[in-house]
Prior knowledge:
It contains eleven helices and no strands. The chain is mostly helical. It has two domains: 1-63; 70-270, no CATH class.
Amino acid sequence: MNFIETATVTLFGIQRIVFKSGILNYHDLSKQNTARRIINFRKYIYIILFFLVLIMIKIGVTGIKGLFVRPSLLSTITITIQLFAIMDPVGALPFYLYFLNKLEGNERNVLWSTVVISMTVLLFFFALVGNEMLKLFGVSIYSFMIGGGVLLMIIAIDTMGEGSRSLTLDPKEAAIVPLASPLLVGPGTAATLIILSNTIPLSELIISLMIIAIFAAVILKYSENILKIIGKNGVTAFSRLFSIIVAGFAAQLLYEGLVGWGIIKLICVFF
């Protein structure tokens, strides 16, 4: 029995124990609610399996050492702030609420859970296998740093200028596109995750992603209350503050990419 089969049997065993223990009681729930909970439970099982497979792929390619490196508190905080600024979930609130306000009842919870799950899956996907995608296409990390730096700088400038975004979608279809991606996990976030997966220990990156996913989920969950407290001007102010952080990180990526290419050294020789 391979790893995936073992994990599947274990997780479905947990599901059976949960129902038998009375945590989810078939007699207390209607058939419709029971079916919905079973579907949701299995959905989370598949997501856990997906993450386990990604981690196993990463360990198989890079080795297990990075996973057990003791994370640096300062480095983890810095990475978390950088990624949080690039994602800018606070800046996404007006767009999220635009679609949320068109829904009622359980549809609002479905929108929130779909956005959070999709966002988390994308974050871990790019962090764990993004580097392997680069190798597959023959792109060096320094080239990707320069490309990612240019892209992040454009995003920072666009955020400062309040670039326009399309809101002409059905709210029921907006959870994955454009809310989860590209609004939260866009090209800039993907590029940053791939670069960080090459430059920092895997343990630090996973901890940062878990913190970011939780914070983003809480911000979206209480989006209406947050918007009432800070107002639209507050959202704009936060977004512009984050854009400055993004621009600084973009400049750092461009510098490191140019150093890797040897262009900075060449310039120093001539000047």
